[in-house]
C-alpha cells in the first residue's frame, strides 16, 4: 500500500562545511499546523530521477519538533541522486518543495531519561542534535532530569565538525551536558581530543563507574526479569557508519552492558 505523502517547502539552506559538502536544510510542512515526531526519528524523501524512476532516501531529523517545521543535515555525495537533488540550487531553491512521508523509526530516547552517552560520526550527529534540543530547549523546561549527557562526536578533520558552535554554547550553558568532539586525523594546531570515539567512550564509562563505586564489568542482568521490564541507569545512543557502531557496541558489551542499553542506528 502506498504511503501518504506530504509536501515540505524549503525555508532555508546552508552549507555548513564546504570541505565535506555538508548542507543544513530547514523545511516547513505548510498543510499541517504541526508536524509531530520524537527526537531521533527520520523522514523519507521521495522524488523522480532523470529516468522516471521514483527514488526514496531516509534522513534523520536534525531538530526537535517545533510547529510544522523540521531540519535535515545531509552530505552531498558525488553521483548521489538525492543528496545532489537537495543540495543543488537549480533542483531545489529556497521556496521549492519535496515530497516526504513519515516520521518513522525507533531510535528514540528511553524513558525515564537516564545518564546517556551519545556517540556519532559524520551526519550521525543529526539525531543527537534533535535529542539535545529536546532535552535542553532554549527558554523551555529542562527535560534531562539533571542526568549527565555526553556527546562524543568523531570525525577526521576539524572542517568536518558539524554544529560545533551550537554544541559548545549548549555545554557552556548546561553543566550536565558534555561535548567531546574528537579527530582521527587532526592537524598539529588542533588542541582538542584525538582518536576514535571508542577511546573517549571507554574513558566515560570507566570514570563514571569509579565515581559511583560500580563494578566493571557490570554484573549480568537477572534472567528472570522480562525484557520489557528491564531498566538501566545509563544508555548509549550510537549513530554513524556500521564500522563505528559495531566497534562501540563491542566495547560496551565488553563492560557487561546489556544489549538493550545500547540503542543504535546505522546509515550504510
Structure description:
The chain is α/β, with parallel strands linked by helices and 268 residues long. It folds into two domains: 6-104, Beta Barrel (Elongation Factor Tu (Ef-tu), domain 3), CATH 2.40.30.10; 115-266, 3-Layer(aba) Sandwich (Rossmann fold). Helices cover 21% and strands 31% of the residues. The protein has helices at 81-87, 125-135, 164-173, 197-212, 242-254, and strands at 6-17, 22-28, 42-48, 54-60, 69-75, 97-104, 115-121, 149-155, 177-183, 193-194, 234-240, 262-266. A six-stranded antiparallel sheet has the order 4-3-6-1-2-5. The chain has a six-stranded parallel sheet with strand order 10-9-8-7-11-12, sandwiched between helices. Strand 11, helix 5 and strand 12 (262-266) form a beta-alpha-beta unit. Helix 4 runs parallel beside helix 5 (242-254). It is globular and about 60 Å long. The mean pLDDT is 95.
Amino acid at each position: 500500500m502506498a504511503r501518504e505523502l506530504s509536501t515540505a517547502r524549503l525555508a532555508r539552506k546552508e552549507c555548513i562545511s564546504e570541505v565535506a559538502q555538508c548542507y543544513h536544510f530547514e523545511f516547513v510542512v505548510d498543510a499541517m499546523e504541526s508536524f509531530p515526531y520524537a527526537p531521533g526519528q527520520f523522514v523519507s524523501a521521495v522524488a523522480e530521477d532523470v529516468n522516471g524512476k521514483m527514488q526514496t532516501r531516509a534522513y534523520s531529523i536534525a531538530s526537535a519538533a517545533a510547529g510544522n517545521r523540521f531540519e535535515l543535515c545531509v552530505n552531498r555525495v558525488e553521483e548521489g541522486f538525492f543528496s545532489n537533488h537537495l543540495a543543488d540550487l537549480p533542483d531545489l531553491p529556497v521556496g521549492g518543495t519535496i515530497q516526504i512521508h513519515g516520521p518513522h523509526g525507533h531510535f528514540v530516547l528511553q524513558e525515564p531519561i537516564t545518564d546517556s552517552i551519545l556517540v556519532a560520526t559524520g551526519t550521525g550527529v543529526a539525531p543527537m542534535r534533535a535529542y539535545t534540543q529536546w532535552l535542553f530547549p532554549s527558554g523551555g523546561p529542562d527535560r534531562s532530569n539533571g542526568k549527565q549527557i555526553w556527546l562524543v562526536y568523531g570525525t577526521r578533520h576539524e572542517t568536518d565538525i558539524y554544529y560545533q558552535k551550537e554544541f559548545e554554547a549548549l555545554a557552556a550553558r548546561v553543566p550536565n551536558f558534555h561535548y567531546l568532539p574528537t579527530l582521527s586525523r587532526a592537524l598539529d594546531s588542533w588542541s582538542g581530543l584525538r582518536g576514535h570515539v571508542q577511546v573517549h567512550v571507554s574513558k566515560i564509562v570507566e570514570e563514571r563507574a569509579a565515581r559511583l563505586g560500580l563494578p566493571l564489568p557490570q554484573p549480568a542482568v537477572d534472567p528472570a526479569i522480562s525484557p520489557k521490564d528491564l531498566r538501566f541507569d545509563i544508555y548509549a545512543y550510537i549513530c554513524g557508519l556500521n564500522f563505528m557502531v559495531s566497534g562501540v557496541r563491542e566495547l560496551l558489551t565488553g563492560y557487561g552492558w546489556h544489549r538493550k542499553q545500547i540503542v543504535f542506528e546505522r546509515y550504510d
